[in-house]
Specification:
Adenine-n6-DNA-methyltransferase TaqI, Chain A, domain 2, Helix Hairpins, 3-stranded mixed sheet, about 280 residues, 12 strands, alpha+beta, single chain, about 45% helix, Restrct_endonuc_typeI_TRD_sf
Length: about 280
C-alpha cells in the first residue's frame, strides 16, 4: 500500500512538473518575441536590408518602419520615441497596516502581498497571497486595492521579483506597482523590466539594503513604440499568459489536493480509489 501511495503522489508531482515546464516554455516564447521586436528590432532590420520580416503577416510587418534614428538609447526605429517610464505607466507603492492591531487583519477580506509571496513563485502571475487585510486595514493603504493585471516589481530585499496580478490585491512598501491603463501595459512592462533590470538596480541606493524608490524609478528612459505595435505584442503575449495562468491555477490546485490527501492516505482515513477519484475530478 505504501508503494501505491508513493506512486499516486509521484503521478501528481509529475503532472505539476509538466504544467510548470509548459509555463516556462510559454514565457520564453513571449520573451523571445519581445526581444525580437523591442530590443533587437528584427522586423526593422529586415526591412532596412530589403527583406520581409520573418514570422509575421503583412499587416503586422506594415506596423514597423524601414529606418532607424538616433536617440538617447542609441539607434531606435524611426518614429518611435523615448520617454521616462513614469510618464508611460502609473507607478505606485503600498504599506503595511499595524500588525499589532487585529482590526486591520480580521476579518481577512482583501488580498495583501509582500515580496515574500514572490520569493518561491513558480510562475510570473500572482494567484494568491499569504495574508489578507480587513476593510479597516485596506483603508490604511493609500494605493488601495490594485486591479487585476497590475505588474508588481519588488523594490527591495531583493529588487527585481516580477509578477502580473490575477487577483485584486493591496501591496506593502516593498513593491513598485505599475497599473493598467498607461501607454505601456503591464504585460509589455513585465518584459521591459526584465530586459532593463540592471538599469533599474543601478538606480537603487541604501545603507541597510539596496532599494529603488518610485522617485528614482520614474525617470528611467524607456522606449515607446507606436500604440498599434504595443497592442499587437500584447495581443500575442496575452494568449500565452492566459494559458500560463490556467496551467498555474491547475498546478496550484493539484499541489493543494496532494497536500490534503496524502496525510489521510497515510493514516488510513482515506482509501486510494477515493483519492484517485478526487484527482480525476480535479483534472476534469
Amino acid at each position: 500500500m505504501q508503494q501505491r501511495i508513493a506512486e499516486f503522489s509521484a503521478a501528481i508531482n509529475d503532472r505539476i512538473d509538466l504544467l510548470r515546464q509548459t509555463n516556462a516554455t510559454l514565457e520564453s516564447i513571449a520573451q523571445a518575441l519581445f526581444k525580437s521586436w523591442f530590443i533587437d528590432f528584427d522586423p526593422v532590420r529586415a526591412k532596412t536590408e530589403g527583406r520581409e520580416p520573418e514570422g509575421m503577416d503583412a499587416a503586422t510587418a506594415a506596423l514597423f518602419p524601414a529606418e532607424f534614428e538616433e536617440s538617447v538609447l542609441g539607434l531606435i526605429p524611426k518614429g518611435w520615441s523615448v520617454q521616462p517610464i513614469g510618464e508611460l505607466a502609473e507607478a505606485v507603492g503600498g504599506s503595511t497596516p499595524d500588525t499589532k492591531n487585529a482590526a486591520f487583519w480580521e476579518p481577512a477580506l482583501h488580498h495583501w502581498t509582500s515580496p515574500k509571496d514572490l520569493s518561491g513563485a513558480t510562475a510570473p502571475v500572482l494567484l494568491d497571497t499569504e495574508r489578507k487585510v480587513s476593510k479597516a486595514g485596506l483603508a490604511k493603504i493609500s494605493s488601495g486595492l490594485l486591479p487585476v493585471s497590475t505588474l508588481l516589481m519588488s523594490s527591495r530585499a531583493p529588487i527585481g521579483y516580477l509578477s502580473v496580478t490575477r487577483i485584486p490585491v493591496a501591496i506593502n512598501q516593498g513593491y513598485i506597482a505599475m497599473l493598467p491603463g498607461g501607454q505601456l501595459p503591464p504585460l509589455y512592462l513585465y518584459f521591459w523590466c526584465q530586459a532593463n533590470m540592471d538599469a533599474i538596480k543601478g538606480r537603487a541606493n541604501g545603507s541597510t539594503f539596496m532599494e529603488i524608490s518610485k522617485k528614482a524609478f520614474r525617470p528611467i528612459p524607456a522606449l515607446l513604440p507606436p500604440s498599434k505595435v504595443v497592442e499587437q505584442f500584447v495581443e500575442l503575449a496575452k494568449v500565452l499568459f492566459d494559458r500560463l495562468t490556467e496551467n498555474e491555477r491547475q498546478a496550484y490546485s493539484l499541489a493543494n489536493l496532494r497536500d490534503a490527501l496524502l496525510p489521510r492516505l497515510i493514516s488510513g482515513k482515506l482509501r486510494l480509489p477515493e483519492a484517485q477519484a478526487q484527482l480525476e475530478d480535479a483534472l476534469a
